Amino acid sequence: MKPFNFLLTCYADQTYGRGEDDRLIRLVASYERKPARWIRLDWYDTHTGDKHRITTHRTGSQGAIRVKSYREVLADYRTHEESKSMGPDGLPCTRRTRGLLGRRLVATEGRPMHVGKESNSIEARMRGEVESEDEYLNRYEPNQCGCGCGEVVRGKAVYASAAHKQRAWRQRLRAMRTRKLNQGQTLRPMIGS
Ligand SMILES: [Zn+2]
56 near 73, Cβ under 8 Å? Predict the structure, then answer.
């Protein structure tokens, strides 16, 4: 397989097409025009570079990885859950959901922030080399103070000043006490006047 050539890919079976680390094996092969030859090509795991044979029969074998047939891909597509919509009952869709779908509600946590498109480093992300959102997401607004005051902080600073850091710490402590009270635990009584 030469770099920058066209290539083929196929989809490993969810159950039987897994590598040693339980990762779904992703296979590519040199481009071949005739579908009848696909089953006999040398396929390569994009993760390890190992060469494999493929099969669409049963569970596969030691020498051949079980991949999905067109029929299976189509069958999955016909009944896959629509994750972006709500069912008529207002609940997330399942394979059994029927009827007119509605929009899912989106709840924001905190203040909205302007971010870039999510396709940065997409190949590295598909290879699993980049996982943290911070490594690929562009944020177009400066960071704000961690105490929630709304003040802008520069560089890698989390708080606007030491006083803000203390305020955030007190807030966390208060939240922790409230949680404990809600859980029915008693706080240590205050000693003194
Ligand atoms: Zn602050």
Answer: no
